[in-house]
Amino acid sequence: MSLPLAPKPAIRRFHQASWDEPVIFELSTPGERGVFVTPIEPGVRDAVGDVVAALPAGLRRATPPALPELGQMRVLKHYLRLSQENLGADLNVDIGQGTCTMKYSPKINDQLIGTPQLTAMHPLQDPADAQGVLEIVWSLERMLAEISGMDQVSLHTQGGSAAIWANIAMIRAYHEANGEGEQRREVITTIFSHPSNAAAAKAAGYEVITIFPDAEGYPDLAALKAALSPRTAAIMVTNPEDTGIYNPAIKQWVDAAHEVGALAAYDQANANGILGITRARDAGFDVCHFNLHKTFSTPHACGGPGAGANAVSAALAPFLPGPRVVREVAADGAVRFDLRDTDARSIGSVAPFHGVIPNIVRAYSWIMALGAEGLLAAAEIAVLNNNYLLAKVLEIPGASAPYAAGRRRIEQVRYSWQELFEDTGISSEEIGIRMTDFGMHYWTSHHPYVVPQPFTLEPTESYSKAEIDEYVAVLAEVAREARETPEVVRTAPHNQTVHHTHHDDLDDPERWAITWRAYQRKYFGAGTPASAAEPAETAA
Amino acid sequence: MNQPFTHPYLPNTAPDVKQAMLDATGAASVAEFYADVPDELRLSRPLDLPAPFPAEQDLARHVRGLLAKNRSTEDRLSFLGHGTYQHYVPAVVDEVINRSEFLTAYAGEPYEDHGRFQALFQYQSLMAELLAMDVVNVPTYDGYQATATGLAMAGRITGRRRVLVASDVLPAKYSKVADFVRVHLDLEHVPTVNGTADAAAIAARLGADVAAVWFETPSATGAVETALRAISDLAHEAGAIVVVGTDPIGYGVLTPPAEQGADIVTGDIQSLGLHQWYGGAHGGFIAVADDPTFIMEMPSRLFGLATTDVPGEVGFGDVAYERTSFAQREEGKEWVGTAAALWGIAAGVYLALMGPQGMADLGELLLARPRYAQQRLAAIPGVVLADGALHLREFTVNVAGAGLTAEGVVEALRREGIEPGVVVGEHTLLVCVTELTSQADIDRLAASLAGLATAADASTTPVTTATILEEQNALVSDAVLPLAPELTQEQNA
């Protein structure tokens, strides 16, 4: 006699949780309490009187904020249900979000950061009381200096784009210090570099020149040389680019920039396949940044906090944000970590205090779990996984990997469903939505879509061969549906918390509802808009 | 021992699997995949990194050993604020944001990530109630960035360059804002009087070239601005936009800036359910009216309600996505990227737990206990309050009359296990009092400081009003003005 177990089907029968949970304001019951505040002591009350009644006219809030009133367990249950309606990387085969390196974030690191010895540390405490956290910051800086080949590292920024901003802010300060701030007004980037390189450069006051790839998808060195001039402040490039193609002429790019007096900034968001293989400084870069939430495993947290790391050559070190963590060795050999202010050349503060400390500790722990051999192995396995995935995806009719035909890729590939689209009319976005019905995440590409009908996959080192095979099987299944039952794809999602959502509500100022308050007012006439925008008539 | 190399984080290091995958690619070795990396750029040696701890228990012991060197605000009595604040974090907040589904998610569609969209829409909505404004963004990095962007928005909307800085600003925040906006805006600090804005001086400087008047309330010294409505009216008459940087912790009892004329309200959410984390847990909000003139200048994502194919079903999506750098690269508004979404979810949970009564109770406490602390400290001979403003959570005291320096006070009280505050002037200390510092804690601080004051020779340094005013002005970072070297030093602290 055997238990009546059937083998699992090749394609998972997934359905996302659907709790039908109301918007939290609808759950409010007057008088319920979620948490109490400690009472004001009688002795304090006696001494200070009724401080609220004593507020000057106009400073005392006339009507309480219309926050919902809920018992504690109801708040918990509400948010846990919402969490179940969310597909974290811990639950799916999260290789569909290329460029973002959705690797495993080890649970031990989450545990380690939860101690009050970290959570209850104030950044202005006596440094003597912060020796542990300062040592970790200092050590991670040194590790990233070694990994990048750079001289100095700052961990102050809170994300990759914030780090890109710090890159361009340092470049700007450098040229100004050399008296070339007025002359150098242009930044050159490539279309397959993250959009924030272009956007941050623009925000810093630069004109942006974008280089498109050559016919084979390689960054176009001739186009770069044509764009470089004494007006160039910097090149800001990713390598490998978001296509997974490594620019073999990267040193020539850097040299060409240097020849016109420009600096070379390296967006290392895509560093996961080249750890221990090749380093930014060795290619001549002056400044680079890592995303600790990508390459160094800190969780993506629904979109942050991540953490950025800016690494620079000695020439740019004076421009780093401050304050800096320093390691001092006393005459008796005692080691002490301290904080030191930067001087006037620094771009100053880029964020409060010393960066996203919980993620700095997580990234430190990740490196300390792997070491040099493990980092290299992680890079090599990420690249093996990617080239394995590439071979498998190319077996799916209608899928292609534009550019660099027959060449290997590093850690990700930007694929195309153009052929499938021409055959079926099903777009990459539609395929992506149908993928969610199988419990799989999928992403197309940054805009603009240079690769037609794009999708970008990055398997990282974290997923097993079996999981990669499972992802490919679902891709193939959806491609088959596109040909055989296109309506199923077109009307997706079918197994999700909610159904196909209409975007026209979101682009119409008359209809959009960005908060519950605005929704109540616009659709039910409740309340009045606060703070009418009196100065709007001054709009330029 | 570990040859061939395997690791728990790297499943495909299993030798047979690795070989099978290589075979599937037709590659003889992993080296083939790096054919495009020139030999001259190849690192020819192993990275020089510390020896690792591959076994999890060894890693844990190592990291815990390092963190055990810390002495936290649970081990010390802390009156530290100055941008990062110790508030109680309800257990439910940590429970929710530590859920794998939220912690490890990123950029899913509003289908498989419906929960993330709803939680962040609710964050926007809960903040909107607290701030009495109709639009709040998905969090940006921190309050510094939020205010910098708010000012930049005002510049873009008005097409003007001048910004009048009406309040005392945290030096680090001023540094960040100044460097962020300097190609677009010129900041001019208008010295405060008695801790708050100098309405007459601002009125005199207002003109048709002023893009914004920037208030901080509570200010860098914890002073609550009392003239916001009056000055906002003047600013609006001049066609300027009123940008406020604030901490929302007090708006259970205090009138929110939007009801006093503010157009763009910005600030930090660390106080709302986030641990101190050595200053490493900040998120920024930007709030405006439901007016496309303002909304279309916001760089951040905005999640909105949407209809679906099922009548009555609530879906979510990105509002006006075409504003963003995701859609438009350098033609978008500033940029958007990974910032602080999970902290936004935390702040939402916090506000849902606190409710209107909790925020009212806390707001009252953050007025009452600091007032009590002011009374206790000012009762010490030679210790005086640095201004007469209304304070929320933080205030400054001048210890010159007690023959003390602020550094001296900190040094001495640290020996007693007390962090008495942040040194913001030679004789000025910024003291922060929250729900985690009780009456008994305040009494202990007062007793210790009184002991120091008695011990010092008070006759050597008589305090004058001038000393106090001078130090008060030194709290402000005027990065665009020429600064005395010693002042620069202090501001970078």
From TrEMBL, chain A:
It holds the Pfam family Aminotran_5. Keywords: Oxidoreductase, Pyridoxal phosphate. It catalyses: N(6)-[(R)-lipoyl]-L-lysyl-[glycine-cleavage complex H protein] + glycine + H(+) = N(6)-[(R)-S(8)-aminomethyldihydrolipoyl]-L-lysyl-[glycine-cleavage complex H protein] + CO2. This is glycine dehydrogenase (aminomethyl-transferring). GO terms for molecular function: glycine binding; glycine dehydrogenase (decarboxylating) activity; pyridoxal phosphate binding. Its EC number is 1.4.4.2. It is an enzyme of class 1 (oxidoreductase). Gene3D superfamilies: 6.20.440.10, Aspartate Aminotransferase, domain 1, Type I PLP-dependent aspartate aminotransferase-like (Major domain). The glycine cleavage system catalyzes the degradation of glycine. The P protein binds the alpha-amino group of glycine through its pyridoxal phosphate cofactor; CO(2) is released and the remaining methylamine moiety is then transferred to the lipoamide cofactor of the H protein. Residues 378-490 form the Glycine dehydrogenase C-terminal domain. PANTHER family: GLYCINE DEHYDROGENASE (DECARBOXYLATING), MITOCHONDRIAL, GLYCINE DEHYDROGENASE, DECARBOXYLATING. It comes from Agromyces fucosus. GO terms for cellular component: cytosol; glycine cleavage complex. Residues 156-329 form the Aminotransferase class V domain. One of its GO terms (biological process) is glycine decarboxylation via glycine cleavage system.
Automatic annotation (TrEMBL), chain B:
Coiled coil: none annotated. GO terms for biological process: nucleoside metabolic process. It is an enzyme of class 1 (oxidoreductase). Its EC number is 1.4.4.2. Keywords: Oxidoreductase. One of its GO terms (molecular function) is glycine dehydrogenase (decarboxylating) activity. InterPro entries: GcvPA (IPR023010), GDC-P_N (IPR049315), PyrdxlP-dep_Trfase (IPR015424), PyrdxlP-dep_Trfase_major (IPR015421), PyrdxlP-dep_Trfase_small (IPR015422). It holds the Pfam family GDC-P. Residues 9-447 form the Glycine cleavage system P-protein N-terminal domain. This is Aminomethyl-transferring glycine dehydrogenase subunit GcvPA. It comes from Agromyces fucosus.
